[in-house]
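Appendix C: a fully annotated inverse folding record. The material below is reproduced so that readers can follow the format used throughout the book. The structure is listed first as tokens, followed by the designed sequence.
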């Protein structure tokens, strides 16, 4: 551990950081946007921060928040069970896809699987249980007007159907996702108990190859990543000596390869590293040589 006196916080140069992040975004083969929030001062920088991007799996934070809120409000208990979707309605993403038909998990299991390993079938089952409209209404109540899960259970009007065709599972903006994580950090997204629980779950990530990998091992990171063919995304809180939140999004990528050096992943890692070094100039960090061999694989699923 580095002594706190050595890591005395300095005001980060957000103007210089913004210029460097914009260079990366403008040279990207596709759309790239971001929002970074200094959680001590509340100051933020963004580029394409109000543009709508596909969420991919980052929408799962909103679903998890709604599930925990409903438990907090007495509508459910964490031990309430709900059967997994039948095999023909599942997605081959992580563990629940391989479970037997009729398997029932509780809300605690679904929330931890959907966040911790980004299990798609767990998310789809919980979304089916909660409904999409309550998730979106919760986001609206927080002022996040463009953050929506585009569900498969609730009836969709023509506008929602058009959004789903364009954005897939969910839609958001970098500014709104950064704000959501800022509200969690401030314990204002819901009750303090809900925010604390969700942050602890977000702090246990299998997919740790973007923001968590750009910080020293002793630094707490609460994050959620997302990926589809033409988009990569990462939203995180980094508990640096001067904490910050980030939301990094790409869309319309020319590089659709599912490899560690996908242009979107490289851009997000580069941006995350720049952000760390701006907030922690006395503690620059790089991964050990050869670490890239151990990038998460999804377990082969």
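Designed amino acids, in order:
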């Amino acid at each position: 551990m580095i002594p706190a006196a050595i890591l005395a916080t300095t005001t980060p140069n957000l103007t210089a950081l913004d210029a460097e992040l914009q260079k990366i975004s403008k040279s990207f083969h596709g759309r790239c946007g971001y929002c970074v929030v200094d959680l001590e001062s509340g100051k933020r920088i963004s580029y394409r921060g109000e543009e709508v991007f596909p969420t991919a799996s980052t929408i799962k934070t909103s679903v998890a928040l709604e599930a925990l809120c409903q438990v907090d409000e007495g509508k459910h208990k964490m031990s309430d069970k709900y059967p997994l979707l039948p095999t023909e309605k599942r997605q081959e993403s992580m563990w629940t896809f391989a479970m037997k038909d009729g398997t029932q998990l509780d809300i605690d299991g679904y929330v931890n699987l959907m966040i911790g390993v980004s299990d798609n079938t767990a998310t789809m089952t919980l979304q089916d249980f909660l409904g999409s409209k309550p998730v979106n209404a919760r986001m609206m109540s927080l002022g996040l007007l463009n953050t929506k899960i585009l569900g498969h259970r609730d009836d969709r009007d023509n506008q929602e159907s058009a959004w789903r065709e364009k954005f897939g599972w969910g839609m958001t903006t970098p500014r709104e996702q950064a704000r959501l994580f800022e509200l969690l950090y401030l314990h204002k997204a819901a009750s303090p108990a809900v925010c604390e629980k969700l942050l602890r779950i977000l702090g246990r990530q299998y997919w740790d190859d973007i923001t968590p990998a750009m910080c020293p091992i002793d630094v707490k990171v609460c994050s959620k990543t997302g990926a589809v063919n033409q988009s990569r995304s990462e939203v995180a809180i980094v508990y640096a000596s001067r904490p910050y939140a980030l939301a990094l999004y790409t869309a319309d990528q020319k590089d659709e390869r599912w490899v560690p050096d996908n242009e979107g992943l490289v851009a997000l890692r580069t941006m995350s590293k720049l952000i760390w070094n701006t907030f922690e100039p006395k503690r620059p960090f790089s991964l050990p040589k050869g670490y890239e061999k151990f990038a998460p694989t999804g377990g082969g699923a």
